[in-house]
Amino acid sequence: MVIFLVFGRAKYLKPNEETDQKFCKILKEAASNQVEILAIRLKFDGKSLYYVGKLPVKLN
After folding, report:
1. What are the E-state strand segments in the chain?
2. Where residue 8 falls among pLDDT bands split at 50, 70, 90?
């Protein structure tokens, strides 16, 4: 399992292939080999961390 912790107003997680092609390739290979990829949206108010929800993961 790979978990990404996302802060901010993201609507989904999509790796930036232009920035890191090798990372994108390895992440896609992992997903195709049944490794679960999760993106969890969190909020931090300066004191506490809050779970907001899951985000869709777009690998294509």
Report:
1. 2-7, 37-44, 49-55
2. confident
Predicted model pTM: 0.84
Is residue 60 in some structural domain?
no
| CA–CA distance, 34 with 28 (Å, rounded to integer) | 10
Q: Is residue 31 part of a domain?
A: yes
10: tokens are 């993201």
In 10-56, which residue ranges form alpha helices assigned H by DSSP? Answer: 21-32
Distance (Å, whole) CA 46 – CA 38: 24
Q: Which residues pair with 34 in a beta bridge?
A: none
C-alpha triplet 37, 39, 44: angle, nearest 5°: 150
The total number of structural domains that make up the chain: 1
